[in-house]
Fold:
Amino acid sequence: MSVNRVKVKPVTIAAKGFSLICLMLSLMACVPLGRIPMGPVSRMIPPQPDHCNAQAFAGLQGEHFARLADKTLAGPLRVIWPQQLVTGEIDTTRLNAQVSATGRINRLFCG
Structure:
C-alpha cells in the first residue's frame, strides 16, 4: 500500500499578519467611527417647519400622550421624556411630543 504525500507550503508569518490585518479592517468597517452625538432637545433639534402637522394637535397639550394614538400623523411619533437625550437626526414629518414624568404633553413640535 502506497501513501501519497502532498507537499504543503508553510504559511509565512507575513501572510498570517496580512490576513489578520484584513480581518481587523473588515470588522472595523462594521462599527461606526465615533459616537452618535446626543444632547438635550433644545440643542439637538432646531425649530422646523410644520411638516408634521403639530399645530393641529396643539389642543392636546396637558393631555396624556396616549391620546395621540388615535390620531392620524403625517409621519412617526417620538415621545421625549424629561432629561432624555436625543440625536440630532431630523425627520421633518416626525411629531415630537415632549412629555412630563407622568406622560402629559408639554410641547409638540416637528423634527
About this structure: The chain has a mean pLDDT of 82. The helical segments are 13-28, 41-44.
